[in-house]
Amino acid sequence: MIFRQLFDRESCTYTYVLGCEKTREAALIDPVLELVERDVQMLDELNLDLKYAVNTHVHADHIFGNKAIKKILPEVKSVLGEEGNEEAMADIRLSEGDVLEVGETIKIEFLSTPGHTNGCHSLVVRDGPTTMVFTGDTLLVRGCGRTDFQQGNSKSLYKNVHEKIFTLPDDTIIYPAHDYKGRTMSTVAEEKQYNPRLTKSLDEFVDLMDNLGLPYPAKIDVSLPANLVCGLHDVPPGAK
Ligand SMILES: N[C@@H](CCC(=O)N[C@@H](CSS)C(=O)NCC(=O)O)C(=O)O
C-alpha cells in the first residue's frame, strides 16, 4: 500500500493518504480544509487517483476538506460512518462491519466506536501481515478524545476502546486523528499498557473525563455546522 501521514500544525490533525499500488486509486482520511492544495499536490506527485474523502467523524476543531477537494476533483465521493451520523451529509455512508474497497488491494473496514462523539468510527486496514487502525479521536496516543459535546459519552468510549480496538492484534498500528505532543503512532499493545486514561477502571475513567476542564475547540461554532453538510457550505469570511 502507498501510505503517507500528513500533519496540520494549526489543529494538530493528521490526514492520511492510502493508495492502491496496483490501480493507483486512493482515499484520504480526515482531510483539513486549509491543506487541501497540499494533499492534492501530494496525490498528484504520487500519481494517485483520489476516489474517496473519508472522515472518521464530524470534527469540531476544523472544517472537512471535502468541498475544496470536490472543486478540484469533482468525482471524489465523501464517506462517513452511518451510526450516529444520521443528521450529517455524505455521498456514501458505511455501517459497522462494512468495507470500503479502494482499488484492488485496499479494504477499509468500518467499526462504530462512539464516545468522543456519537458518530465516531474507527477504520481498520489490513496490509499483508500488518493491521492498522485509524482511530479518529476515539483513541489518541496515550490519550483519548474528550466526551463533553456532540453526544459524547465516556462510558461508551471506554467500552468501544476495550471491546473493539483493544481486541485487535497487539501489534496493530494505531494512527490517531490528532496529537498535541508530536507523537505519530502507537500500537494496541502499547496503549493497553501505557494509556493513562484507558488503563483505569471504568469508574475512574468516567470521573477523569467528567473533570478534564478543557476549553471548547476554538472553531467549534463554524466547524460543526459546516461539517454536518460535509464541508459543502460557504465558508464564512474569517473562518480560516
Ligand atoms: N485546542 C484545540 C482543541 C483541543 C481538543 O479539545 N481536542 C479534542 C479533539 S479535537 S475536537 C480532544 O478530544 N482532546 C482530548 C484531550 O485530552 O486533549 C482547538 O481549539 O481546536
UniProtKB/TrEMBL annotation:
<protein>
    <recommendedName>
        <fullName>persulfide dioxygenase</fullName>
        <ecNumber>1.13.11.18</ecNumber>
    </recommendedName>
</protein>
<keyword id="KW-0007">Acetylation</keyword>
<dbReference type="GO" id="GO:0070813">
    <property type="term" value="P:hydrogen sulfide metabolic process"/>
</dbReference>
<dbReference type="GO" id="GO:0005739">
    <property type="term" value="C:mitochondrion"/>
</dbReference>
<dbReference type="GO" id="GO:0050313">
    <property type="term" value="F:sulfur dioxygenase activity"/>
</dbReference>
<keyword id="KW-0223">Dioxygenase</keyword>
<dbReference type="InterPro" id="IPR001279">
    <property type="entry name" value="Metallo-B-lactamas"/>
</dbReference>
<keyword id="KW-0560">Oxidoreductase</keyword>
<comment type="similarity">
    <text>Belongs to the metallo-beta-lactamase superfamily. Glyoxalase II family.</text>
</comment>
<keyword id="KW-0378">Hydrolase</keyword>
<keyword id="KW-0809">Transit peptide</keyword>
<keyword id="KW-0496">Mitochondrion</keyword>
<dbReference type="GO" id="GO:0016787">
    <property type="term" value="F:hydrolase activity"/>
</dbReference>
<feature type="domain" description="Metallo-beta-lactamase">
    <location>
        <begin position="12"/>
        <end position="178"/>
    </location>
</feature>
<keyword id="KW-0479">Metal-binding</keyword>
<dbReference type="InterPro" id="IPR051682">
    <property type="entry name" value="Mito_Persulfide_Diox"/>
</dbReference>
<dbReference type="InterPro" id="IPR036866">
    <property type="entry name" value="RibonucZ/Hydroxyglut_hydro"/>
</dbReference>
<dbReference type="InterPro" id="IPR044528">
    <property type="entry name" value="POD-like_MBL-fold"/>
</dbReference>
<dbReference type="GO" id="GO:0006749">
    <property type="term" value="P:glutathione metabolic process"/>
</dbReference>
<dbReference type="GO" id="GO:0046872">
    <property type="term" value="F:metal ion binding"/>
</dbReference>
<keyword id="KW-0408">Iron</keyword>
<dbReference type="Pfam" id="PF00753">
    <property type="entry name" value="Lactamase_B"/>
</dbReference>
